[in-house]
């Protein structure tokens, strides 16, 4: 096999790290959404995390989801509209766990790969964490506009991974 043939079959770094984030997400026991995140400095993997209940506490698959409903006022086409949002409050998000289990000094100037676009709370936390870039696969439309605006204000590169296909072993149906 020629060297160029070998390189053509080799995954690029974005795909490589997003594949790892998806494989990390398979540890989640959340019945609604499996989310994985990876912290990378250059090409060095510094940490991984997934969403779930706090350690030692029953998770949603054992105790059921703790769903709360919230209403948020949004401007749609210049008109004020109320949008219902549901979220589980038992689960610590993958991005939050990543921040809990990595050091600030490691995060300075690093990149976070996450299977799903961060929610508003996670985006706020990431914005204050020292990272310089967030790469995600699945959109999270409920918070998308305000999260993109925050990242722009903070100067954090915020980008979806275009044309990405997750590993088959990490597949799950996502409940919005």
Automatic annotation (TrEMBL):
Q: Which molecular function term from Gene Ontology is one that the record holds?
A: dCMP deaminase activity
**Family that this chain belongs to:** Belongs to the cytidine and deoxycytidylate deaminase family.
List the active site.
Answer: 95 (proton donor)
Keywords recorded for this protein, A-Z:
Hydrolase, Metal-binding, Zinc
Q: What cofactors are annotated for this protein? A: Zn(2+)
User: What parts of the sequence cross the membrane?
Assistant: none
Gene3D superfamilies named in the record = Cytidine Deaminase, domain 2 (3.40.140.10)
Q: Which residues form the CMP/dCMP-type deaminase domain?
A: 12-161
What's the name of the protein?
CMP deaminase
Q: Which GO terms describe its biological process?
A: pyrimidine nucleotide metabolic process
Q: Which residues bind Zn(2+)?
A: 93, 119, 122
GO cellular-component term (any): cytoplasm
Which CDD domains does the record associate with it? deoxycytidylate_deaminase
